[in-house]
Structures are given as C-alpha cells and as structure tokens.
Amino acid sequence: MAQIKSFSWTNPNPAVARNLDVGFTVAEITIVDTTNGGSWYWATGMTAGTVLDVDAGTIAGANGVTPVAQSSVFGASISGFTNANPGVITASNVTACGFAAGDTIKVVGVADDATATTLNGTYTVASVTGTTITTATNTAAYSVYVSGGYAVRVTDSTGAPVEMDNKAIRGVTLGTSAVGANAAAMVAIVKGQNCVV
Predict the structure, then answer these.
(1) Is 163 inside any structural domain?
(2) Domain limits at 28?
(3) What's the average model confidence in pLDDT over 157-174?
(4) If you count Cβ atoms within 10 Å of the first and of the last residue's Cβ in the chain, which end, N or C, has fewer?
C-alpha cells in the first residue's frame, strides 16, 4: 500500500499558490475543485511546475505542481542581520520554526567582518514578522553581517527548553494553475513514492 494523505481547504479570493507539507516524497497528486468542478493531476516524470488539467486535457507549462523535498530545516536560514538598535535578523522559515516574542534564540554560523563583537550568540526575541526576527539587543556596535547563519529557538517565552525538531517541508507547492478557482472548496489526494507495510 502506498503512502497517501488527503487535504481540504477553501481558497481565498483571489486564489493563491499554497504549500502542502505531506511528510513524504510525492509520487502523484490529484486536486479537485468541489465547488465548481474541475480537477488537476501531476505525477513523477512530469516536469516540475507543470500540471495536467484533466477536464481540458491540456498541460499547463507553468505555475503547476512543484515537488518540495528539503532535507533538513532546524532553524531559520539568515540572509541579513542589521547593525542597529534593536538588531533585526532577516531569515527564511521564520514562521515554520515557530519563533515568538520572548523566545531565546541562538545565532550560529554567521560570517561577519570580525571588526567588533560577533553577531553569533544568544538573543531574546522582541518581535517577529513573516521574514524578520527583531532582537531585544542593540547590535549597532557589533561586527557587520557578511553572509550565512541560522537562528535556532533555545527556550520559549516562559523559559522552557524548545525541542529540536526538523521543520523541513516534504511535499508540493501548488501554483496558481493547480489551486482552483477563487473562494472554491478544494480537495487534494497525495500519494508517496514509498510503500507502507
């Protein structure tokens, strides 16, 4: 028997691309618009980003289904760290990693210019947005960010240790050619490459 998962959601208006984190490598997916009718299909062997419109019998060459198979994400991948009061970290996977105000985080692997205090270290989170972590630390006199690094949660706002957990996505991104109509109720059936015994 194959790995299989189903998902259901209602599209916003306008419908937008979405990620489905299924937890396994995707072999095929069927997406159905249960409000308006219509279905889309993608399988291993098709080009990433394409999708078959089953009803029309045509293949959309862009904005279709793209497999996502990150090997590991244990923290937010840093792409910037300001020298300011307060210091602001720009990173990916901020939401997936669960950062919140009051958390203690550890920044590791940052390459900085080594002219002053390193940006690698422990910080308290003041606030979080989709791609930024604002620290409670004045980093104006710290070394200048050059590249790389990760931010990892150490404790939550109550001081409780945060368990190390792999937040990597193993699933698919459904582009606008595969998500269905605006405000439509949708269902997706996803099958994996491996058998389950």
Answers:
(1) no
(2) 2-70+169-195
(3) 83
(4) C
Per-residue pLDDT tens over the stretch 100-152: 999 999 999 999 999 999 999 999 999 999 899 999 999 999 999 999 999 99
pLDDT, one tens digit per residue, over 24-34 is 889 999 999 99
Q: Residue 162: is its pLDDT beyond 70?
A: yes
Tokens of 53: 């419109």
Whether residue 160 is contained in a domain is answered as no
**Co-location of 85 and 117 in the same domain:** yes
Tokens standing for 7?
């998902």
CB 11 within 8 A of CB 180: yes
Domain of 149, CATH number, reads 2.40.30.180
The most distant pair of C-alpha atoms in the chain lies apart, rounded to whole Å, by 62
Q: Measure the N-to-C terminal CA separation of the chain; round to a whole number of Å.
A: 7
Handedness of CA 157, 92, 22, 165 (dihedral sign): negative
Q: Please give the Cα distance from 27 to 48 (Å, whole number).
A: 12
Cα separation, 125 vs 77, in Å, equals: 16
On whether the CB atoms of residues 97 and 167 are closer than 8 A, the answer is yes
pTM of this prediction?
0.57
Phi, psi of 165 (to 5 degrees): -140, 135
Please say if the pLDDT value at position 153 is more than 80.
yes
Residue 162 located in a structural domain: no
Q: Can you tell me the distance from the alpha carbon of 50 to that of 68, in angstroms, rounded to the nearest whole number?
A: 14
